[in-house]
Design goal:
279 residues; alpha+beta; 3 domains; elongated
Length: 279
């Protein structure tokens, strides 16, 4: 990022601070939703459009939107291109999915349909909370598959079978489900119990996850994503294609690296990524 020309009054001081400290504008230094938060985006976008700022490709994509603009509607003032997601329902679905996954963990299923049916039956009824049951089942599946992936990686290092052998069904059209046996989804990280391979919002960046290094057996915390609260563009085919190419997502296979999780963020609906796809 390089400043070509800049005045030093008002909001421009904040812009200069971003540039001097090499802070991307997508990591706006002001509190999200505050007046200065919008002013900085608005002024920086205007300067970018006039050719006064050189920024990286991510900020370029940001400034090609109407971020920083605010319009008056019959429902009040609305900020453009800056979605603030209500994660309450998503959080409830996430919690319900965890409960369902815990309920069936250790059971055996001959098909994916059987597993989904068991998860559906295990979903809780929250007296004061509504949630999307289909999303809760998706979340439960994510938890179980992630646990399975972790054990598969560990077994490859140790050269052992990750699951007890199980014969295939001889009748019907069902396909043996890969989730077999008891899977462990908890571990300890710096003295506290954590869930493995379950991405969450927060931490030093937008998302974080705990995962096991299959080579050492140690638990590692991986953080990724910017901290502005901007929506991941997983429902934009053009942005998806560009992201995949830039980050070489098809070859990201190391769970201990941020790139692996960044390329798979849309898979985890509990993170609030709407209408997305797995790269």
């Amino acid at each position: 990022m390089r400043l070509i020309e800049l005045e030093t009054t008002g909001i421009h001081d904040a812009i200069r601070y971003h540039i001097t400290n090499n802070i991307p504008f997508r990591e706006n230094i002001f509190r999200p939703g505050s007046q200065n938060f919008f002013k900085l985006f608005s002024e920086a976008r205007k300067m970018y459009e006039k050719g006064l700022l050189n920024v990286d490709w991510e900020d370029q994509e940001l400034f090609e939107t109407e971020i920083g603009s605010v319009i008056n509607t019959n429902k009040g003032m609305v900020a453009l291109d800056l979605p603030f997601e209500d994660l309450q329902e998503s959080e409830h679905s996430d919690r319900a999915g965890q409960i369902a996954a815990d309920s069936v963990r250790g059971s055996k299923f001959s098909s994916k349909d059987d597993l989904e049916s068991a998860l559906s039956d295990a979903l809780p009824n929250f007296s004061d909370k509504d949630y999307d049951r289909s999303k809760a089942i998706e979340r439960a599946m994510e938890i179980l598959y992630s646990e399975m992936d972790d054990m598969l990686e560990a077994s490859q290092v140790k050269g052992s079978e990750p699951f007890p052998k199980k014969s295939k069904p001889t009748t019907g059209n069902s396909t043996p489900h890969p989730y077999r046996g008891r899977l462990v989804g908890e571990a300890e990280y710096q003295g506290k119990k954590v869930e493995l391979n379950k991405p969450k919002r927060g931490g030093s960046k937008k998302y974080y996850v705990y995962t096991r290094n299959p080579k050492t057996g140690n638990i590692k915390k991986v953080s990724w994503g910017d901290t502005t609260g901007l929506k991941t563009k997983a429902n934009n085919p053009g942005a998806v294609k560009s992201f995949v190419a830039r980050h070489d997502c098809k070859n990201k296979k190391d769970k201990t690296k941020a790139g692996y999780w960044a390329c798979r963020t849309p898979r985890y609906k509990s993170l609030g990524v709407k209408g997305g796809q797995w790269w």
